[in-house]
UniProtKB/TrEMBL annotation:
Keywords: Membrane, Transmembrane, Transmembrane helix. It comes from the Bacteria. PANTHER family: INNER MEMBRANE PROTEIN YBAN (PTHR35813). The chain crosses the membrane at residues 5-25, 96-113. The keyword Acyltransferase does not apply. The keyword Ubl conjugation does not apply. This is DUF454 domain-containing protein. It comes from Sphingobium indicum BiD32. Pfam families: DUF454. GO terms for cellular component: plasma membrane. The lineage of its organism: Bacteria, Pseudomonadati, Pseudomonadota, Alphaproteobacteria, Sphingomonadales.
Length: 117
């Protein structure tokens, strides 16, 4: 039963990552890393496919070995956080816009402190 739940979660993460490839505010690589994590516990063949993927494989391997995020990835994530926080600032009333701003500050700080490739 647990294996099936990991498989479902892996496909859900894969789907969200695929959507994130086309939507600028939804991250792609973190969902692919999560999918690889789930597939490692449910389907080694699917995990191997992700690890061998020409675009996502290096990011997943780098994250697994050292928790590293590329400088380009950091810049993209911080740009998305900044865009989201700015959008919330102009479109949300007080105090609701503080939630995405706080999330951007916390998430952005955490991402920036990760090692680089």
């Amino acid at each position: 039963m647990r294996r099936h739940l990991y498989l479902i979660a892996g496909f859900a993460s894969l789907g969200l990552g695929a959507i994130g490839a086309f939507l600028p505010l939804l991250p792609t690589v973190p969902f692919m890393i999560l999918a690889a994590f789930c597939f490692a516990r449910s389907s080694p063949a699917l995990e191997a496919k992700l690890l061998d993927h020409q675009h996502f494989g290096p990011h997943i391997r780098r994250w697994r070995t050292s928790g590293a995020i590329s400088r380009r990835g950091k810049k993209a994530a911080l740009a998305a956080f900044t865009f989201s926080a700015t959008l919330a600032l102009f479109l949300s009333p007080w105090p609701w816009y503080l939630i995405p701003i706080t999330a951007a500050l916390i998430g952005g700080t955490w991402i920036w402190t990760r090692p680089e490739a």
